[in-house]
Task: structure prediction
Amino acid sequence: MWGNLESFSDFFVTGDPMILGAQVSIALAMIAIVFVLTVFKKWGWLWREWLTTVDHKRVGIMYIIASILMLFRGGVDALLMRLQLAMPDSEFLHAEHYNQIFTTHGVIMILFMAMPLMFGLFNIAVPLQIGARDVAYPFLNALSFWLFFFGAMLFNVSFIIGGSPDAGWLAYPPLSELAHNPGVGQNFYIWGIQISGIGSLATGINFVVTILKMRAPGMKLMKMPMFTWSVLSSCLMILFAFPILTVTMALLFLDRFLGAHFFTLDAGGNPMMYINMIWMWGHPEVYIVVVPAFGIFSEVVATFSRKKLFGYSSMVFAMISIAVMSFFTWAHHFFTMGSGADVNAFFAVSTMIIAIPTGVKIFNWLFTMFRGRIRFTTPMLWTIAFIPCFIVGGMTGVMLAVAPADFQFHNSYFLIAHFHQVLIGGVAFGYFAGLYYWWPKMFGFALNERLGKWAFWFWNIGFYVCFMPQYFLGLDGMTRRLYTYDFDMGWGPLNMISTVGGFLMGVGFLFQVWQIAHSIKFHKRDTTGDFWDGRTLEWSIPSPAPLYNFATDPQVKDVDDWWETKQKLARGEKLPPKPALEPIHMPKNSAIPFIMSIFWFGLGFGLVWDWLWMAIPSFIGVAACMIARSFTYDDDYYIPVDEIKRTEEAAAALKGATT
Amino acid sequence: MAKSVAHHHNEEHGHEHVHHDLDSLKSFGFWIFLMTDVIIFGCLFAVYVVLRNNTAGGPTADELFKMPGVIAETFILLTSSFTSGLAVLAMHAGKRNQLIGWLAVTFLLGAAFITLEVTEFIDMVHEGATIATSGFLSGFFTLVGTHGLHVSIGLVWMIGLMLQLRKRGITKVTKRKVEVLSLYWHFLDVVWIFVLTVVYLMGVM
Result:
């Protein structure tokens, strides 16, 4: 029954003291969680309020918590790598362990940190920004989250069970094929990504429909907040890109599981086909994560400059053209493949063209700040820091896009520095800005600004100290994925500086954890619902938003409608009376998403180990959950008017008590 | 939640309208899902076309494909698409038993299609042509098998829907479900036309 297992150590990873330490601390943490939940009798609360919820605001919070945990793990991986590289001829990590760490670092940071943090912010902000009561398919939304969660767990469990994948974050064949990678690590990679990828695709569909069909009356497409536009653009890319990932992972799995010959070196397989396919997903993927960050910057920069966003329609145009162009640049990741000058020329030019709409956006943000009354809050600081960082990252990207020059830069530390600069400087800075910006809306209390500024400066200085030396290391010939180097190469000093920078960013992260803990303890309540003097609809309702979001449907007339409303009130104009309250139609909680995702986990785990006795019943479980859902007709209820009235009055009283 | 949708029509929104709007929302989402499925099939077709001449000393398409069976499969599937259309017509006429009857006919035709396909696959495996034989056969089994898997899922779905129709009759919700299923079924028919052309006809040409 256990098939390929011959001894205990084939299953649990043993023999490495660091991993043993991690195993012990994971076990202790799990015991502690169970203990706390039992002592405080919180199991029922956890089940009713969180595990079975279909409320977009709660789903969003769960996404964000999970992504911060993943940021911690991906960050630890990064620091281990930096420690290993700090000095020449280091023996801190051996080659195999190093391979695993750079693989898991990349996968976790992109797929299990950036994606869920992004989905968390989608969930928190989009329905509130467009004046909707929830997303289009709340049940599917919860399912997306749990698929992501159990996919991420499946991937992470490889660290202590069976061994981590070690073929790089995109798992190029033939290295990722069974012949060269016989362990189960690569199977964990495939199923972790596959299961969470299905969730991502569903989220893409969900938000496209939500944005296209559920906007408040009067909110035309060209009156949508810019973040909502960026989400639409990102989700359209998800719709086109993620099916390609699904197919690619499935084919790699068939190669490994059934001995098919899609990407093998023998019997007519073609490894380069994998590399084309994975980048047809992978290149749009980086735009999928960065475009919502652009949306966040647009919201933040307008709010804290107290000005309308400069060039609204050019911003929309830039976002949509980036979404389209992102599908025509994938081959720039492998100019060295040898597809010929004409192909390389096409992809070089298309890559450079993307810099144009991005440049338009940069100017729009700058002109929005121009002559604005800028408030230097934490979200705004991240936004201001993003601009120069992303410009340098974008310029080095254009350098990489020059195909002949790329033969020199390819797979060197120059490339590593470039993509960390756009992904940290663009995506991470953007999501931090978004997290700080919407935090009061999510939880109803503010984060400590002082600690946030400390975190900001550590992150920023650390970033430049860490990654600027890597450009020069790359030009000096240091290639990526190198686990050690000789003293004679002369790369020691720059690597040491880079490691110091990495740890400064680590200190920045600790400040953020401290900031959150401190702010929970001192709990500065946001009583107004409009903590930053905001411009869009999410700030017109209490913080945290009530279960039903809007007591009555908002009537939208302008871009930045809430700001215009406040201006009218300040001028003493009368607002049209609000319509009478009516019972609100809401979806019921459901346990199916959670249970079904556990079955998906079982299915993945069974296929990882080639245990059909586990995979087949789990598959039947998945099917049974789908059928059970199809037969559920009683999935909604109405919130009575009395309850809405009580909730609204309580929020008004809280507001009145302080103003 | 759905009320903001209902407002676009400026209608009174009782329970019925809420359901109506939720249902149109779900149909729209299903269209988008089908578009993503188009991309999945598009990738599989592309992979097949890249690999189709990589027979690696194994059997070629010309040697392997037996056209009479494939043509029978094609006619069966096309007919099932027609009968699923008749089911929808019966639904619009409000005839529940006729609707269930046509769905049952569609189900039987779909099951016959799958039986023929599985037999074809088993025959090939007995002749020594498996998914592990060559790049060409990996592409073939995966593309055609994915279509077959879709049809099989459709069959399970159809049983579930017939049971729901028997219990609940033709309501707005079941109506939407039948329409979505028939959309899915026609989609699979279209995909099959491409499979027939690109895989079988171009294979034996």
